[in-house]
Amino acid sequence: MEIPMKTMLSILFAAALSLSSMPAHAVKWDLSTMTCRQFLESGEDNIAVVLTWMDGWYKGDEDNAIIDTEVFIENAKKFGAYCGKNPTVSVVTAADEILGK
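Request: output the structure for the sequence above.
Response:
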């Protein structure tokens, strides 16, 4: 089932802008086994957390205290588009493809 691009971009955009507080209970995610479908269906808060983690992880040590919201949102859109077309691919594989680590 391919997620409509407009819906997916709306979810990703909202998630990227609403980086809300973490849930009260601890959660562990193995992003190497999480599929793009699971990611896209995980809810805005979880999407925001994963996108923020990926932004920092793939930047490495460069600009470690800077979040460029334009770049962040553009990368989130690219990531969402890739995941929408490849729902069975792992989140890490998708991130490697889009962010090129």
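The mean pLDDT is 79.
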